[in-house]
Amino acid sequence: MPVSVYQTKAKWISEQIQNKLKLLKSDPSYYAYILMSVEDEERLATIYNVFRDAIRKSYLLRPAPPISSGQLIAIEARVSPIAEIK
């Protein structure tokens, strides 16, 4: 969901992510991404902390007893600059 990014740049980024999903054979319904502009390092740190907290909380949902079937999953979050806005 591109927010405050040039339309052609946002389209290119979306295509790169979709290509990665195809290569990894990932189910797109379990993959989400957000593009947004950030003015300063303080806001960037806040966004990072929100994602880190969400991942920590999701870990609390794991089953307590050992399980003998199911799936091993990975939860990813990456907060990274991709382009400078001029």
Characterise the protein shown here.
This protein is mainly alpha-helical. The chain has two helices and no strands. The protein is flat. The two termini are 21 Å apart.
In short:
This protein is mainly alpha-helical and 86 residues long.
> What's the total helix number?
2
Output the helix-strand order.
Answer: HH
Radius of gyration: 16 Å
Based on secondary structure, the structural category is mainly alpha
Question: What does the largest sheet look like?
Answer: none
Task: State the total count of DSSP E strands.
Answer: 0
Average pLDDT, rounded to a whole number, is: 80
Spans where pLDDT lies below 50 across 5 or more residues: none
Shape: flat
Strand content: under 5%
Please report the distance between the alpha carbons of the first and last residues: 21 Å
The percent of residues in helical segments reads 40-55%
What is the secondary structure topology, with strand pairs?
Blueprint: H1 7-24, H2 41-59
Pick out its properties.
single chain, 86 residues, mainly alpha, 2 helices, 0% strand
